[in-house]
Amino acid sequence: MNRENEANRNPLINGALLAYVLLAYLFVFAPIVASFVFSFNSDRFPSIPLGDFSTEWYRAVAADPLVWQGLRNTLLVGVGVGVISTALGFGAAYTDHRYNFLGKQVYLALALLPPTIPVVIMGLAMLAFLSRVNLSGDAGAVIIAHVVICAPFAMAVIRLRLSQMDPSLEPAAWNLGASEWAAMRHVVIPFCRPAILGALFVTMAVSFDEFAIAWFVSGLNETLPVKVLGFLQGQVSPRINAVGTFVFIVSMTLLILAQLLLGRTAAPRKE
Amino acid sequence: MRRRLSLYGLTFSLPLLIWQLLFFVFPLVFLIALSFWTVRNFRMQPDFDMVNWTTMYGRAVFWQAYATTLTLAAGAAVLTSILAFPVAYAIAFKLSPRVQRWAIMLMVIPFFTSYLVRVYSWQVFLSDAGIINVMLGWIGLGPYGLLNTPGATLLGFVTLALPLVVLLQLFSLIFIDRTLIEAAHNMRCGRLRTVFAVVIPSARVGLVIAALFAFILSFGDFVSPIYLGGGDPTTLSILITDTTKSGQQWPRAAVIALTMIATLMIVAYLAVRFAYRGRK
C-alpha cells in the first residue's frame, strides 16, 4: 500500500518531513505538557527555571468550595448531556441508515450543523431564548444547550458503526418473525453497543470541556470550565494549571476509552 | 430497506428533530426578532425598531472590529492550512498504517482538550518574563513584548484549529488515487511538482473544507483575542461577550451575531463553490 516510487525515496526530504511532523506534535502538546509541569511548580508566576516541587495549587483548588460546586455541576451536566445526546444521536443515525424520505437533507443538516456555529453566537442565542422561556441560569440550561452541539458527535460515531452492519441482518431477523422492536433490541442495539458507549464518552468529553455556551447560560451555576474562565479573568494563578491538569486527565480518559471501543469495532470487518 | 416512516421509525427520528428545532433553530430565529427589540430603563421589550441596526452599523468601532476579525480569521485559515499540510502529507504518505493510527489518535486528543488551559499555557510561554523570553535572554536577546499582539492571537487560533485541519487534510489525502501519483512519477514529474500538480488538486475539496473550518473556528473565538491578543484591536466575538455580559444590550449583541452568521454563510458558500468548481 505504501510502496513508493524511486523518485519518492529521498531520505533527506523524508527525514525533514518527519522532523517537521515531530515539531508539529511538539507545538500541539507543548501547552498541555507545560500546564501539567507548572501545576506542580511552587512559583507564583510560572516560568523557567522551575521552582520547587509543590502541590500547593492542588491544595488551593481543593480548598475552594466553588471549585467543588463547579465539579458537581460539570459531572451532572456531563452525564445528562452524554445520555440525552447519545439517545438522540442514535435515533438520528438509525433514521439516516434505514430510511429515505423527502427533506432528508434538511434533517441531516439539522442533525449535523450545530457544532459549526460559533459558540459565542450559540451562547447568545441560547441565553436570549432560554431566559425568555425562563429556563436559563441553571444546570438544566447548560444540558439543553450542550445536547444541541453534542448530539451531532454521537450521531456521527454511531452512524459509522451502522454503516459496518450487514444490511441483510435486520431483514433476516424480521423474516425469522421478529418484530421491528425486537430486531432493534436483539440485533441493532447489540451490534452498536461499542459505538453507543463510545458516543457516550465522546459527548461527555465535549460537554466536559465546553466553556463558552455554558458561560453564557449557566448564570450562578458555573461548571468547572467556566470556573477556569473566571480564573483567567482574575489574576494570573497557577491554580488554572491544577484544574486544567485534572480536566485534561478526565477528558483524556474518556477519549481513550472511546477510541479503544471504536477502534476495536472498526478492526474486524476491515482487516 | 426503504420503508415508509411508521410509529416505529418516528420514535427514532423525531426526538432529535424536535430538540434541534426547539433549541437550535428557534433560538437562532429568535435572535432575528431580538435584534429589533428596544431597551428602555435596562429592560428589553418586544418592538420593531431598526435602532439597534443603525446604532451598531453607524459605529466606526464595529466596522474596525469587523475588519480585524475577518483579517485575523482569514490569516489563521491560510497559516494553519500551510502549517498543517506537510504534517498531513507526511502522515498520509510516509507512515506505516500502524504509526498512522497513532498519529491520528494523538491529533484527536488535543481537539477535545481544554482550549482555555492551553491558551493560559501560551501566556506562560509568551509573557515578558515567560519561557520564551527567558530562553532568548540566555543568548542575550530580548525581552520582547510577545503577549497582547495580533501574532499571539494568531498563535491561539492555530492552536485551536491545527489538529482539526491536519485531520481533515489527512482524510482527503488518504483517499487520493495512488496510481495518479505513480503515473506522475513515471512521467518524471518531480516531487514538488507532483505535490502541486497532482496531490493538491486531487485533494482540493478536503483542503478547502479544512481551511473553511479553521476560518469558522477563528472567526468565532473570543478567548485567544482577549487572553493572548489583549483585547486590542477588538474583535466581533469580544464585542458580543462585552455587550451581552456587561450590559443589558442583548439586541445589539444580536445584531453583531447575525452579521457574523451572514458573513460565515457567505464565506462557506464561496468556499464550497470554489472547492467543487469544475466537478460534479
Automatic annotation (TrEMBL), chain A:
<keyword id="KW-1003">Cell membrane</keyword>
<feature type="domain" description="ABC transmembrane type-1">
    <location>
        <begin position="71"/>
        <end position="258"/>
    </location>
</feature>
<keyword id="KW-0812">Transmembrane</keyword>
<keyword id="KW-1133">Transmembrane helix</keyword>
<feature type="transmembrane region" description="Helical">
    <location>
        <begin position="195"/>
        <end position="220"/>
    </location>
</feature>
<feature type="transmembrane region" description="Helical">
    <location>
        <begin position="12"/>
        <end position="40"/>
    </location>
</feature>
<dbReference type="InterPro" id="IPR000515">
    <property type="entry name" value="MetI-like"/>
</dbReference>
<feature type="transmembrane region" description="Helical">
    <location>
        <begin position="240"/>
        <end position="262"/>
    </location>
</feature>
<dbReference type="InterPro" id="IPR035906">
    <property type="entry name" value="MetI-like_sf"/>
</dbReference>
<dbReference type="InterPro" id="IPR051789">
    <property type="entry name" value="Bact_Polyamine_Transport"/>
</dbReference>
<feature type="transmembrane region" description="Helical">
    <location>
        <begin position="139"/>
        <end position="158"/>
    </location>
</feature>
<dbReference type="GO" id="GO:0055085">
    <property type="term" value="P:transmembrane transport"/>
</dbReference>
<feature type="transmembrane region" description="Helical">
    <location>
        <begin position="106"/>
        <end position="127"/>
    </location>
</feature>
<dbReference type="Pfam" id="PF00528">
    <property type="entry name" value="BPD_transp_1"/>
</dbReference>
<comment type="similarity">
    <text>Belongs to the binding-protein-dependent transport system permease family. CysTW subfamily.</text>
</comment>
<feature type="transmembrane region" description="Helical">
    <location>
        <begin position="75"/>
        <end position="94"/>
    </location>
</feature>
<dbReference type="GO" id="GO:0005886">
    <property type="term" value="C:plasma membrane"/>
</dbReference>
<keyword id="KW-0472">Membrane</keyword>
<keyword id="KW-0813">Transport</keyword>
<protein>
    <submittedName>
        <fullName>ABC transporter permease subunit</fullName>
    </submittedName>
</protein>
TrEMBL record, chain B:
<feature type="transmembrane region" description="Helical">
    <location>
        <begin position="195"/>
        <end position="219"/>
    </location>
</feature>
<feature type="transmembrane region" description="Helical">
    <location>
        <begin position="253"/>
        <end position="276"/>
    </location>
</feature>
<feature type="transmembrane region" description="Helical">
    <location>
        <begin position="124"/>
        <end position="146"/>
    </location>
</feature>
<dbReference type="Pfam" id="PF00528">
    <property type="entry name" value="BPD_transp_1"/>
</dbReference>
<protein>
    <submittedName>
        <fullName>ABC transporter permease subunit</fullName>
    </submittedName>
</protein>
<dbReference type="GO" id="GO:0055085">
    <property type="term" value="P:transmembrane transport"/>
</dbReference>
<dbReference type="InterPro" id="IPR035906">
    <property type="entry name" value="MetI-like_sf"/>
</dbReference>
<keyword id="KW-0472">Membrane</keyword>
<keyword id="KW-1133">Transmembrane helix</keyword>
<dbReference type="InterPro" id="IPR000515">
    <property type="entry name" value="MetI-like"/>
</dbReference>
<feature type="transmembrane region" description="Helical">
    <location>
        <begin position="99"/>
        <end position="117"/>
    </location>
</feature>
<keyword id="KW-1003">Cell membrane</keyword>
<feature type="domain" description="ABC transmembrane type-1">
    <location>
        <begin position="66"/>
        <end position="271"/>
    </location>
</feature>
<keyword id="KW-0813">Transport</keyword>
<feature type="transmembrane region" description="Helical">
    <location>
        <begin position="16"/>
        <end position="39"/>
    </location>
</feature>
<comment type="similarity">
    <text>Belongs to the binding-protein-dependent transport system permease family. CysTW subfamily.</text>
</comment>
<feature type="transmembrane region" description="Helical">
    <location>
        <begin position="60"/>
        <end position="93"/>
    </location>
</feature>
<feature type="transmembrane region" description="Helical">
    <location>
        <begin position="152"/>
        <end position="175"/>
    </location>
</feature>
<dbReference type="GO" id="GO:0005886">
    <property type="term" value="C:plasma membrane"/>
</dbReference>
<keyword id="KW-0812">Transmembrane</keyword>
